[in-house]
Amino acid sequence: QNKEIYTYFIETFGNYLYDANSVLRNDAYYAAVLEHAVASPWMDPDKKTTYRNMLDLVRKNMPGMHVADFAFINKDGAQRRFYELNGEPRLLILYDPVCAPCSEVIQQVAKSQSLATWVDHGTLKVIAVSPVGDLRHWQAYQTNLPRKWVNGFDVSGTIVQERLFDLKMFPTFYLIDEGNHVVLKDTDLQEVLSYMQFNSKQ
Q: What string of DSSP letters covers 154-188?
């Protein structure tokens, strides 16, 4: 009975702290829950393996850590790496070009006057990368993105195959500083705007 109760609470914590649609989502808190689960004698061994794998994923790209580097092709077909595009803070958007909700959210970002001003002044760089889908769909979607954004496609599929990022849903936003450290993980437009307004001189 103790095992059943313990498992129930662990799963409930996951629903609140890890679900992409939860307003209480918090990877740092959920990582602590997972650490307890994988060390607990009350947790089923098979579920421990699942939670251990999940813990490895959740721990990636936490605020303060160096963000995972990756290669992609840009709209001209040139091979680039994320770390090459440093010098100013970067908003990394990982998206699916055929995802309707993605398109709605990305259009909200594209219409932000504050964001456009920071991009124009070189205070912020926006890098939108599709880690999934078909190359032709990505190419067709390029007209939906502002010209001053960097638009990329992970042609090798490395981001997904090597689980470089915890992709709960699309689009996923990360704010990265000039030194490639994660400032905001799995964030949203409002948090990015608030951070930039407080920290930007422009």
A: -TT-HHHHTT-S--SSSSEEEEE-TTSBEEEEEE-
Query: Who's near 114: CB < 8 A, 6+ residues apart?
Result: 193, 196, 197
User: Within its chain, how far is the Cα of 173 from the centroid?
Assistant: 4
- pTM for the full model? 0.91
pLDDT, one tens digit per residue, over 102-152 is 889 999 999 999 999 999 999 999 999 999 989 999 999 999 999 999 999
Cα 79 to the center of its chain, rounded Å: 21
Position 199 scores a pLDDT of: 83
Q: pLDDT by residue (tens digit) across 154-192?
A: 999 999 999 999 998 999 999 999 999 999 999 999 999
**CA dist., res. 170 & res. 89, Å (int):** 21
By the 8 A CB rule, do 85 and 177 touch?
A: no
- Cross-strand pairs, 130: 153
What are the residue ranges of helices labelled H in the chain? 2-17, 27-39, 45-58, 100-110, 113-120, 135-141, 158-161, 189-199
- Rounded CA gap, 137 and 152, in Å? 12
Do β-strands 90-94 and 125-130 pair in parallel, antiparallel, or remain unpaired?
parallel
Nearest to 37 by CA among 79, 3, 88, 67: 3
